[in-house]
Structure formats: C-alpha cells, structure tokens
C-alpha cells in the first residue's frame, strides 16, 4: 500500500524508485519497479530513529512539530553532537546541547540529521537505492529531515503532495484496481 500510494502521488508509477517512510515508531525503505515493491526493510529497534524522537525534540525546544523543519533549516547540525541510537540517549544529548548553549536551530538540525543518518546506516544499506528517492509519511513534512536525508544520499529527495496520506491512497488504489496508464 505504501509504495503504491507513494509512486502514485509522486507521479512516478513507471520505472525504478525508492520509497522512504520514517514513521512515528518504525521506518520503511522500499525499492519499487513500475509501481511494484521489491526489496523492503523495516526498522524500529528504538524510537531514537523515528518521528517520535523528532516530536520529543520539538517539545524540548518549545516549538510545535510543524515548526521543527523550518527551524532545522536555519541550523547547522554538525555543531551539536547527537546520539539518537536510543531515544533516551538522544534526549540526553539534546538537553546537554541546550544547557551548553547550542542554539535551538542547531539542535533541530542535529536531531534531523541524526534520524536520517540512522535510517541511512540501518536500513538503506540493505536495498539498492534508485532515484527518484520519494519520502512519505508525516515526517516527510519536516523539511529539515528531508534535507538531511538528501545530503546523506547525495540526491534531491522528492516529497509528493499529500505525502502523509500514502497509506490511504495506496489502499484506495489497490481496492479499485486502478493503475495509471492501463
């Protein structure tokens, strides 16, 4: 469902692509060929590499989750050491960074980079990344996370309109039997 909805919303139902969905508690990376999912990995050993960590970061910074992405785009993540391999250690890293005088912008950027880096290291090594890279789900609306993922993959990451609804769109497409171009 996720891959079907993602390639439909991205208008890329033909050819190869890679779909990344960093969820609230788990992450998915799917290689897709002509709208059909191929290799698939799912991670979620710890919420440190998930949207939940980004929600906690926003809360600690005193901003709404919708403000985290723009805040991160103003910061430099390399200025803040961040450990989100575990959500407890990641939270400790951001509290320590703020206490040491790091800016909220730098902390937001570091948190986004940390989540992207973990997904890159733990999951994206297991599949053959094909462009375009399509990022979906609620976290795809956090532009700082999308930017960090693009930096790690050294490519522009595509976020389709309404990317947070890919599961519903994919379900509707599968239920209807609709495939563009047929």
CATH topology of the domain at 47-116: Nucleotidyltransferase, domain 5
CATH architectural designation of the domain at 47-116? 2-Layer Sandwich
Distance between the termini: 19 Å
Question: Could you state the order of secondary-structure elements as H and E?
Answer: HEEEHHHHEHEH
Low-confidence stretches: none
| Rg, Å, rounded | 16 Å
* Helical proportion, percent range: 40-55%
Largest sheet report: 5 strands, mixed
Q: Tell me how many strands there are.
A: 5
Main-sheet strand order equals 3-2-1-4-5
Average pLDDT reading: 90
Structural class: alpha/beta
CATH homologous superfamily title of the domain at 47-116: ATPase, nucleotide binding domain
Overall, the morphology is elongated
> How many helices?
7
CATH C-level class of the domain at 47-116 is: Alpha Beta
Binned strand content: 15-25%
Short structural summary:
The protein has about 180 residues and is an alpha/beta fold. The protein has helices at about 1-10, 50-60, 65-75, 85-100, 105-120, 145-155, 165-175; strands at about 15-20, 25-35, 35-45, 135, 155-160.
């Amino acid at each position: 469902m996720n891959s079907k909805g993602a390639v439909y919303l991205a208008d890329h139902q033909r050819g190869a692509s890679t779909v990344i969905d960093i969820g609230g508690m788990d992450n998915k990376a799917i290689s897709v060929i002509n709208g059909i999912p191929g290799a698939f990995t799912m991670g979620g050993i710890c919420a440190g590499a998930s949207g939940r960590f980004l929600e906690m970061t926003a809360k600690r910074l005193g901003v709404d989750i919708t403000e985290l992405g723009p805040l991160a785009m103003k910061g430099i993540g390399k200025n803040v050491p961040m450990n989100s391999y575990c959500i407890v250690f990641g939270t400790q890293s951001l509290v320590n960074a703020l206490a040491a005088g790091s800016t909220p912008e730098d902390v937001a950027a570091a948190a986004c980079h940390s989540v992207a880096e973990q997904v890159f290291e733990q999951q994206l090594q297991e599949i053959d990344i094909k462009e375009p890279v399509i990022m979906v789900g609620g976290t795809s609306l956090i532009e700082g996370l999308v930017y960090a993922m693009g930096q790690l993959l050294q490519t522009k990451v595509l976020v389709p309109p309404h990317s947070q609804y890919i599961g519903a769109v994919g379900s509707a497409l599968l239920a209807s039997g609709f495939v563009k171009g047929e």
